[in-house]
């Protein structure tokens, strides 16, 4: 059975290195696999890599319909996790490997998904979440994309081997999300927008 895996990359292609971040990766390499064998690949540009906010969600939505099995990157933000969990896609943190090495390591079981990510039981690419959007977010978000607040669910634990650049990007993404939550709270309470 043929399935696809999306890998965050810089230049793209099977010989490129896996990107340390997902949402702001310049490209995604979509790899078609059958069993443990790579059958083909396609490079997709990430038009959201320079977005001021929401890059992770937008990038995940861009490629969620292409990944039937898993997404690989050095680090995934909480919003990316919500989108992929709702779509039944496993999140697999990998670093220091080429795309080819990472895909082979994943398909042979040498690298495993993050704890708490979706487990795919069929080739459909759809999990228990309502549709491909955020929905209930499998415990990570409630109230949909615009009104929910992220809460750790055990899958947010940091890998001690995480690349420092990926950690810096995660901090920047979280600070952006925090600013958005503060603005939303201020708007709903009728207070100052800069709270």
What would you note in describing this structure?
The protein is of the alpha/beta class and 195 residues long. The chain has one domain: 2-Layer Sandwich (Nucleotidyltransferase, domain 5), CATH 3.30.420.130. The protein contains 5 helices and 5 strands; from the N terminus they run E-E-E-H-E-H-E-H-H-H. It has a 5-stranded mixed beta sheet, with helices on both faces. Helix 1 runs parallel beside helix 2. The chain is elongated and about 55 Å long. About 22% of the residues have low confidence.
In short:
With 195 residues, the protein is α/β, with parallel strands linked by helices. The protein has helices at 55-64, 78-86, 99-107, 144-147, 164-189, and strands at residues 2-9, 27-34, 37-45, 70-73, 90-93.
Strand order of the biggest β-sheet: 3-2-1-4-5
Structural class: alpha/beta
CATH second-level architecture: 2-Layer Sandwich
Poorly predicted runs are 118-159
- The domain count comes to 1
| Average pLDDT, all residues | 73
Number of helices: 5
The string of secondary-structure elements, in order, is EEEHEHEHHH
CATH topology term: Nucleotidyltransferase, domain 5
What's the CATH first level? Alpha Beta
Top keywords for this entry?
195 residues; alpha/beta; Nucleotidyltransferase, domain 5; 5 helices; 5 strands
Give the SSE map:
Blueprint: E1 2-9, E2 27-34, E3 37-45, H1 55-64, E4 70-73, H2 78-86, E5 90-93, H3 99-107, H4 144-147, H5 164-189
Parallel strand pairs: 1-4, 4-5
Antiparallel strand pairs: 1-2, 2-3
Helix pairs in contact: 1-2
């Amino acid at each position: 059975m043929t399935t696809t895996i999306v890998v965050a990359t810089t230049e793209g292609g099977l010989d490129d290195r896996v990107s340390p971040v997902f949402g702001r990766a310049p490209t995604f390499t979509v790899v078609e696999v059958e069993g443990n064998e790579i059958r083909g690949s396609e490079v997709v540009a990430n038009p959201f890599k320079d977005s001021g906010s929401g890059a992770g969600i937008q990038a995940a939505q861009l490629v969620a319909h292409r990944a039937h099995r898993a997404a690989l990157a050095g680090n995934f933000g909480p919003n990316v996790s919500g989108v992929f969990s709702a779509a039944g896609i496993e999140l697999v943190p990998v670093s220091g490997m080429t795309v080819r090495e990472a895909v082979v390591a994943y398909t042979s079981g040498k690298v495993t998904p993050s704890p708490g990510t979706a487990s795919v039981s069929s080739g459909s690419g759809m999990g228990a979440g309502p549709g491909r959007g955020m929905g209930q977010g499998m415990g990570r978000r409630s109230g949909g994309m615009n009104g929910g607040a992220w809460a750790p669910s055990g899958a947010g634990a940091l890998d001690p081997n995480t690349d420092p650049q990926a950690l810096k990007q995660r901090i920047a993404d979280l600070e952006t999300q925090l600013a958005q939550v503060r603005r939303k709270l201020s708007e709903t309470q009728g207070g100052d927008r800069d709270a």
